[in-house]
Amino acid sequence: MNLEGYLEKYFGYTNFRPGQKETIMQIMDGKHTLSMLPTGTGKSLCYQLPVYIMNKPAVVVSPLLSLMQDQAEQIRVRGEKRVVSFNSFLSFEEKRYALNHLHTYRFIFVSPEMLNSKQLLEGLKKLDIGLFVVDEAHCISQWGYDFRPDYLNLGPVRKELGYPLTLALTATATPAVRSDIIRELGEDGFTEILSSVDRSNIALRVEKCSSYEEKQERLLTLVKDLQGPGIVYFSSKKTAETAASLLQRNGTGRTAFYHGGLEQEQRILIQQQFIKGELDLICATSAFGMGINKENVRYVIHFQMPMQMESYVQEIGRAGRDGKDSAAILLYLEGDEGLQLNFIENELPSGNQIRGIMSYLRSKNPSSSEELSQIMLHEDLAGFFSLNEIQLRITQHLLQSVNDMDDFNTVQADMIGFVEKRKEAKIQKLRSLLNWVHTDTCRRTLITRYFQQDILQKPEQCCDNCGMNIGAYYQTDMPDNVDESRLVFDWKEELIDMLIPGRNE
Amino acid sequence: MDSFLEALILTCLQKVKGERSVSGTYHLLKGKKSSQTIQDSHLFGISRFFGIYPVISREELDSFIQKFTDRGFIQKLPNNNYAVTGTGMSELDDYLKKFPIPVHLNGWAIQNTADVFWRRLSLLIQTLSHLVRKKKGFYPIQKDISVQKWIKQYISAQKLDRQELSAAILSEILPLLEQLSTREREIFVLRLSSSMRTGHTYDQIARMLDLDETYVYFLFVSVLHFMVSRINWEKNVHPHLSILLEGSDLAEKPLTQSTHTTYQYILNGMDKEAVARIRNLKVSTIEDHIVELALTDARFDTSPYLNSELEKEIASVAISNQTRKLKEIKEHLTGSASYFQIRLVLARYGEKI
Ligand SMILES: Nc1ncnc2c1ncn2[C@@H]1O[C@H](COP(=O)(O)OP(=O)(O)OP(=O)(O)O)[C@@H](O)[C@H]1O
Ligand SMILES: [Mg+2]
Ligand SMILES: [Zn+2]
């Protein structure tokens, strides 16, 4: 059977999307592959199809618990039962059961920190792993926009597993980040499959506002005019909530907010309502979107700019997964970048914090790096030096490089150097995005150039600078405004309908 | 008063009459299983609020206290606790006249059970509503794999077919709901997910019914508490729903009788040696009971047996060495710990190792 035949047989699709077939052919050829395919175009299929063809299991590393759950669930919904996810929420019993049945699974999802578990690693070693998948592989690069120290462990893990055939997937990696990925994973010859980052069905637009009120007004008008469903991104939980209630008060009925502060069940409800089309608009922080597979999102608005081009491309990439025309609109108010500058400052430990931590550790007089890591485990560094979670993880990561107890001073200088460099790099990235906001040339060309690619062909609806007609994205017939609070609702009818079919069907 | 939650907190402060600190109220709402919190909750007659708002954070509570102080609802006492002022009392009375405390709330007795009950019931109804329509492949509303497995087994263990099971569940729920107010029935049904629509969030229901979000939450909790207690009371009238309560109380696995007795003594503030003496058992037996309690109840308070530094050290040794072997852990410790203490930590951190 040819690849198209398998595609049809296992997924019911008739054509591959750009990059999929090329990637799968490399894999079937036994070549380690780094594949960069645009957001939302089907990276998961690149490892799922080979699993069926080879009839060997895949180990899939995913950076976020929710992402992992969503992907495992999407596979299950397709009818595949042989799926398991290892994460820290598994109870002891469940974990033991899964470990004992490791050989029965086709898709084994693992969080990177779970790979520290000797038991799991031993179990994996006994398997004949068909494919080792690193999803969102840019997380491995310290210069990537979403660096996760735990991902650095993946190189050693690959080695321990005897270099299984590996597929690294990402949508957004500059050439520098791509070479970082390959180096960190073990440098044993990766083939790269690169598609264009460009999503030609998403029109790009920036609108400048002269005051916060004007921006709110503009948001209100936009969400009333634009054809939904849509997502509006905010840079804080508070602004997302406030905006959602402003919009609700102004008659955009089916609107909800979503952020990491919501209790889990409430979060699941919002997510499912959106996926099932029961909501038209989500006001969200960047916590929303990863792993959510909704085909028909028609627009993404940014109420505040994100921190760099990579996140922007990821976030607007949630629009138009069905390939139909969609719009990405960024609202900019002079000074918006200040918020992001603040984030950058707060993400990293300051020079003073580092000096404080180092002299504290020095006073403990550790004699070996093991002793040092014991001290770090036991002492409440975060509490003593008021580090937030990201700062703590970065500090721990930096301290791992301390081998020789004599050179605390050089390590301290290295750490301060690293932090400064990283800060500088982030500010640089923010500046590029800001330049993109202010450009009067083609936005699409600039995005592809950022990833050092060329644009193949500009779509008709390209960007505000090339000329795009926002009216094309408006709703054609305005829906009656259904005021939900007035809906008559009969609890008994509804409950009966849930459980007894046929009365009104 | 801006929300029912505020009224509830003020009620708690008023009931403890300045004799306990704000932390007491915090632990009460969180449902901390320490003898102090439990005894106090009974002493001051607020055990029905035990564990009914576990999502509260210390910062959130502190901000309410600040607000109450600013508005003159409470006053700091010389012992650093707070007393509700006359203004506070009359504000509270006015508020509770409009929004009374839901009558069925019974946190101490029911909260744990109600939590499990809801997770199972909501998934059961979602599943059945798909099954009776022969719809396959849906996203389960409860992500916890163990709940999903439980429901799968529950459905396949029933003698009834799916239609009959659906009808049976309906016929057990309807009479329960009919004993409640319209508002409560509506909230309950709106929270459910089915093949026709996803359940609504508290925030959404609050807007539909023009209520405050926290009031919707507590009314909903009260409905669950009512259902659980009715079902428990008349198991034979609710043969299908009562199964949903199985193994859901206090402990995941039911405690042995002997452990249960030990537990009662511990909750009364007795130390393990005293319990051993009074029950005429070996201390090591009581220690077994305590480990069992820690194992079955995540909120069981282990602090009397183990300070938090030692706990942290044991846990990190076990986690970093990925071992559950007592001897091995003991060898890695810098200080000293008894096997009992190590077992206790393993019981607590079992899932992470
Ligand atoms: N060849 C194909 N034909 C039609 N639909 C496809 C094809 N390949 C994938 N899809 C669908 O595209 C959607 C997106 O797939 P997937 O989640 O794998 O994208 P992704 O590239 O991993 O996205 P993200 O950037 O969010 O990580 C899924 O609904 C999938 O079923
Ligand atoms: Mg993906
Ligand atoms: Zn253009």
TrEMBL record, chain A:
Q: Does the keyword Hydrolase apply?
A: yes
Any one of the GO BP annotations? DNA repair
Q: Which UniProt keywords apply?
A: ATP-binding, DNA-binding, Helicase, Hydrolase, Nucleotide-binding
Can you give the residue ranges of the Helicase ATP-binding domain?
Answer: 24-191
InterPro entries reported for this sequence:
DEAD/DEAH_box_helicase_dom, DNA/RNA_helicase_DEAH_CS, DNA_helicase_ATP-dep_RecQ, Helicase_ATP-bd, Helicase_C-like, P-loop_NTPase, RecQ_Zn-bd, WH-like_DNA-bd_sf
Residues in domain Helicase C-terminal? 218-376
Query: What would be one Gene Ontology cellular-component term for the protein?
Result: cytoplasm
Q: Which Pfam families match?
A: DEAD (PF00270), Helicase_C (PF00271), RecQ_Zn_bind (PF16124)
Query: Which superkingdom heads the taxonomic lineage of this protein's source?
Result: Bacteria
- GO molecular-function terms, A-Z: 3'-5' DNA helicase activity; ATP binding; DNA binding; four-way junction helicase activity; hydrolase activity
Identify the PANTHER family for this entry. Answer: ATP-DEPENDENT DNA HELICASE RECS-RELATED (PTHR13710:SF84), DNA HELICASE RECQ FAMILY MEMBER (PTHR13710)
Q: What is this protein called?
A: ATP-dependent DNA helicase RecQ
Q: Which organism is it from?
A: Peribacillus deserti
Lineage, top ranks: Bacteria, Bacillati, Bacillota, Bacilli, Bacillales
TrEMBL record, chain B:
Name the InterPro entries on file: Helicase_HTH (IPR029491), RNA_pol_sigma_r3/r4-like (IPR013324), YpbB-like (IPR008308)
- Which intervals hold domain Helicase Helix-turn-helix? 258-346
Question: Which Pfam families is this protein grouped with?
Answer: HTH_40 (PF14493)
Instruction: Indicate what this protein is called per its UniProt record.
Output: Helicase Helix-turn-helix domain-containing protein
Organism equals Peribacillus deserti
Q: What is the lineage of its organism?
A: Bacteria, Bacillati, Bacillota, Bacilli, Bacillales
